[in-house]
Write a structure and sequence with these properties.
By secondary structure, the protein is mainly beta. It is built from 5 helices and 35 strands.
């Protein structure tokens, strides 16, 4: 067992094995729930990282557990449940790890490695429709959950998505039409980038495909007006040891900076490739947003790493004691979408940050504010997890920062629009307090992040630090 120090209490959260809880009224610890905050916050992330005394190989391998917080006139109710995939239920019954994952092979001998396949961890993000919530993961179909109780229903093929095609964890929703764009990478004789358009009800409308060079790792993409842009970093998988079940995916991705970063631009209407280009090497997990400027160029915000050390850092997070440095900062890239040529690159914020988001009604369009998670001033970026969230102003460069305090760690900020005043927004997140070993929901006025939260709600259990979430307005 890892013992937390005063400067590293976040690992009590990551290493916590969640039990989950049924719908429970949440006590107000401070302030009051805003009158116009009505809807549901959903968050996804690894709820457990070990079974039978054996720890998973990477933070990405933990069992997906979804938190729902429903804000109604009567108050806030929370519910927290694991996503009960068939693989999860198999391991629950056996009490031990059985399947391979992003950073691990099945325990046991070589024969065991060939008899058990890849587990759908369903642990990365969530996507809300009017009749269901989808728990998303990189390598397979999403799982549909009940919007209120989070009870797992079944794997969801979005109407007619073939079983062989994955539906990735970072879909982009058009704020005007409600249509959703996403992708999935399938590996075989060729590596194929599959592109999807899904209607507002969650039914697949259109798909297309594009053959890729080698076996890259693609986690996110960005929508800019009529375009979809992919920046393919020079990370490539060595497939032979994977096929022989000698090593996991994570262990076989190599950093090849000589390949540069490939730029692919697709048309949103046809999903056909328009252009491709190449620029200098970097790695990114996440994009903030993108739009088309007055000159017709795509302007893209991205959280950029100099190399792929971030993968090893994230593996070490699951042990509670990371030692690898992997700084990421906010950049803006300008691309000619008709040629794929990168015209300009500029670092906007020289602070170690991640998990960028914008207002949902500005996705793919011009925007003013980008919200990020970042380290507190003076924090050790290797030993510490993000202890603050902030709002970056694209026009002025101003950074308004919400420092959660010593030994407090917020998850990704989520923007929630006010149901009464359309000009008002709220930033909602889940904060782990290492001083009390507890988790809370914190709510800020989006314009006053450097003030105290307007409301803090208690949660019945520690919520392990997770990945991505969404806000679903009350309809």
């Amino acid at each position: 067992m890892v013992v937390a120090t005063r400067s590293q209490s976040w690992n009590q959260s990551v290493l916590h094995t969640a039990k989950g809880f049924k719908p429970t009224p949440l006590p107000i610890l401070a302030g009051a729930i805003p009158e116009g905050l009505r809807g549901s916050l959903y968050r996804n992330g690894p709820g457990r990282l070990e079974r039978g005394g054996i720890r998973v190989g990477h933070w990405f391998d933990g069992d997906g557990a979804v938190l729902g917080v429903h804000f109604q006139d009567s108050g806030a109710t929370g519910v927290y449940r694991y996503v009960e995939t068939p693989e999860f239920l198999d391991e629950e019954r056996s009490g031990k790890l059985l399947y391979s994952g992003y950073g691990m092979l099945p325990p046991g001998g070589l024969f065991d490695r060939f008899t058990k396949g890849l587990k759908n961890a369903a642990n990365t993000s969530v996507l809300a429709f009017g009749d269901r919530l989808l728990a998303l993961w990189e390598g397979g179909h999403p799982y549909a959950l009940d919007l209120e109780t989070l009870e797992t229903r079944k794997a969801d093929n979005l109407g007619n998505l073939p079983n062989s095609l994955p539906f990735s964890a970072h879909p982009k929703r058009d704020p005007n039409t409600g249509e959703i764009y996403n992708f999935g990478v399938s590996f075989g004789k060729d590596t194929v980038l599959n592109l999807y358009c899904v209607d507002s009800a969650g039914k697949l409308k259109q798909r297309n495909s594009h053959k890729l060079d080698g076996f890259p790792l693609i986690h996110d993409f960005v929508m800019a007006g009529q375009y979809l842009l992919f920046f393919i970093s020079p990370v490539r998988l060595n497939p032979l040891p994977l096929l022989a079940k000698l090593k996991s995916f994570s262990e076989l991705f190599d950093w090849k900076p000589e390949k540069g970063t490939q730029v692919l631009v697709f048309d949103r209407q046809t999903l056909n490739l328009i252009s491709q280009g190449e620029t200098d090497p970097w790695y990114q997990w996440h994009f903030g947003n993108a739009c088309v400027d007055s000159d017709g160029n795509a302007v893209v915000d991205v959280i950029r790493y100099a190399d792929f050390n971030t993968n090893e850092y994230l593996r070490q997070v699951s042990t509670g004691t990371p030692t690898t440095s992997a700084k990421s900062t906010l950049w803006q890239i300008r691309v000619n979408p008709l040629t794929g040529k990168v015209l300009e690159q500029q670092e906007l914020l020289d602070r170690h940050c991640e998990f960028p988001i914008v207002q949902p009604d500005q996705v793919g369009q011009s925007w003013q504010h980008t919200y990020v998670s970042l380290h507190r001033q003076g924090a050790n970026p290797v030993e510490e997890i993000f202890g603050a969230i902030a709002r970056f102003d694209q026009s002025t460069g101003e950074l308004i920062e919400a420092d959660c305090g010593e030994n407090r760690y917020p998850m990704e900020p989520i923007y929630a629009s006010d149901a009464i005043d359309p000009t008002q927004g709220w930033i909602v997140t889940v904060v782990y307090d290492g001083n009390t070993d507890s988790s809370e929901v914190w709510i800020w006025d989006e314009n006053r992040l450097n003030d105290s939260p307007v409301c803090r709600l208690g949660l019945p259990e520690v919520i392990p630090l997770g990945f991505h979430g969404t806000w679903k307005p009350l309809v």
